[in-house]
């Protein structure tokens, strides 16, 4: 990681993270999917995941699988999200860690409160993004969600966390 | 984990104990220095001691694992010391 | 505090041949009876030997709500110990896994071998010479058995052997391990732990239910490259089979034999996995390897908690009448690295809390649990396929792919266990 001034400003980072969370919370699937680059990775490790190529993850989606996940949500027959969970994401402790060839690396803590018939579920952890600027737009090429309870039994997690 | 070498300690731990193991070159021959990370207690194991350990039958090793054998031998005194 | 047990007559009334009463999923007294008469009596799957490959390795597993340490001692023998200090009951292992030559309780330092024997306690003057050290080891699961590396435990001191318990399920496990060129599976690709607010039987019954996939999984069948949809359609040549002893199978072989294409069951072709296919031919010969690769992997629910689901292994853990954890790991085959990468990749899309398949199954378990509390009607109907059920060449009851032959088989065994008509 180099120490040159980030080409994506802190304000832009914050705006992106808030917008990404809002699009997910509101179930605006196409707009959310459009935030990803073509080489994207969306990763939610489990407590056992050391190397995602050796141990199973809760989510390990390359770009095509992100598309599949969104397409499944949009069928209207994804029962675990039909009806959609009501979710409120709260992002805080945002830090811009630096920049390298891959993009601008950020980390933040989050809480996501999910409501559905099952009841209220609290999800929390740390979220890491790698952001890049493409044609005047900021996109994410990598999002890693490290749940505080990744090593514990988890309820169904079918919304976009 | 770091490889073994002079002063390059390797931490060996499980949920019950934690020690740092260093190859110590200060003597005329190499030996292992083992530090209990919880108490700082240090012990040295030369080649002959290690060879002996490797030859120690399981039953005797199990005897050594009895916590009252050498460590928690006497109940704490009024000052709270356990050794 | 335990609820009063129900008498045998009650279970004969609540479990009929073609319908079962909703309270069986919701009554805490029934759950307590199930723990004592099923989970703490019959053979229950605990873990796989490949999870503790080295002497000193241990993993923390379970039998229902009981926490079980599966350890390999320094001589290589496997033990099933209760994760409870024999002194004053502290939990011994907090980590999910580790390697150690002994277990030292964090509360007062009592120390045990990985075989459970008490090695000693601090300050022995506090115990008179009459303290029977040899009787103060860790609790053990009284009987342990292993088949193809799958380790089972039974809290019953006597009863049918593991092989007798597995019965016809053995052959399905054999069909699983032969998918490895070395004849061994390895459960080394980590676990997801998925908790659902549903009774454990909702899960067991769903595992070999061929009726639901078209409805519950239509979203992924519609958008995914799904070779699975066909298997569960009315055109399927698959068979729902009651193997006896509560074990049930969704036998897909006839379907894939009809397709007659190696690896069709895995949604791929031989040219995508050349190393694996070569290793299989070298291990079994071209003809046998082709047969294995055409027939594919079994889909079998080994009662009460081991679900071999073609490319992943599920373990069902009941915690309360309406709380169950489903543990899942991708199948890994010894001697097949290229296959293992694809197995891991496919499993991580399908299963667990966010899985394309399992998130919807679990949504159904939870809705089902909310549904069955209704007072009217009180019964769940298990009649599907009664009109076309047959006895197959092996003497097992068999039905069409979407028939409830499997659910009826599961309930027949549960009734026999709850009324204590069969030995453990
Ligand atoms: S409870 Fe384990 S040593 Fe006291
Ligand atoms: Fe399903």
UniProtKB/TrEMBL annotation, chain A:
<comment type="similarity">
    <text>Belongs to the bacterial ring-hydroxylating dioxygenase beta subunit family.</text>
</comment>
<dbReference type="GO" id="GO:0051213">
    <property type="term" value="F:dioxygenase activity"/>
</dbReference>
<protein>
    <submittedName>
        <fullName>3-phenylpropionate/cinnamic acid dioxygenase, small subunit</fullName>
    </submittedName>
</protein>
<dbReference type="Pfam" id="PF00866">
    <property type="entry name" value="Ring_hydroxyl_B"/>
</dbReference>
<dbReference type="InterPro" id="IPR000391">
    <property type="entry name" value="Rng_hydr_dOase-bsu"/>
</dbReference>
<dbReference type="GO" id="GO:0019380">
    <property type="term" value="P:3-phenylpropionate catabolic process"/>
</dbReference>
<keyword id="KW-0560">Oxidoreductase</keyword>
<keyword id="KW-0223">Dioxygenase</keyword>
<dbReference type="InterPro" id="IPR032710">
    <property type="entry name" value="NTF2-like_dom_sf"/>
</dbReference>
UniProtKB/TrEMBL annotation, chain B:
<protein>
    <submittedName>
        <fullName>Uncharacterized protein</fullName>
    </submittedName>
</protein>
From TrEMBL, chain C:
<dbReference type="Pfam" id="PF00355">
    <property type="entry name" value="Rieske"/>
</dbReference>
<comment type="similarity">
    <text>Belongs to the bacterial ring-hydroxylating dioxygenase alpha subunit family.</text>
</comment>
<dbReference type="GO" id="GO:0004497">
    <property type="term" value="F:monooxygenase activity"/>
</dbReference>
<dbReference type="InterPro" id="IPR001663">
    <property type="entry name" value="Rng_hydr_dOase-A"/>
</dbReference>
<dbReference type="InterPro" id="IPR017941">
    <property type="entry name" value="Rieske_2Fe-2S"/>
</dbReference>
<dbReference type="GO" id="GO:0016705">
    <property type="term" value="F:oxidoreductase activity, acting on paired donors, with incorporation or reduction of molecular oxygen"/>
</dbReference>
<protein>
    <submittedName>
        <fullName>Phenylpropionate dioxygenase, large terminal subunit</fullName>
    </submittedName>
</protein>
<keyword id="KW-0001">2Fe-2S</keyword>
<dbReference type="InterPro" id="IPR015879">
    <property type="entry name" value="Ring_hydroxy_dOase_asu_C_dom"/>
</dbReference>
<dbReference type="GO" id="GO:0005506">
    <property type="term" value="F:iron ion binding"/>
</dbReference>
<dbReference type="InterPro" id="IPR015881">
    <property type="entry name" value="ARHD_Rieske_2Fe_2S"/>
</dbReference>
<keyword id="KW-0223">Dioxygenase</keyword>
<dbReference type="GO" id="GO:0051537">
    <property type="term" value="F:2 iron, 2 sulfur cluster binding"/>
</dbReference>
<keyword id="KW-0411">Iron-sulfur</keyword>
<dbReference type="InterPro" id="IPR036922">
    <property type="entry name" value="Rieske_2Fe-2S_sf"/>
</dbReference>
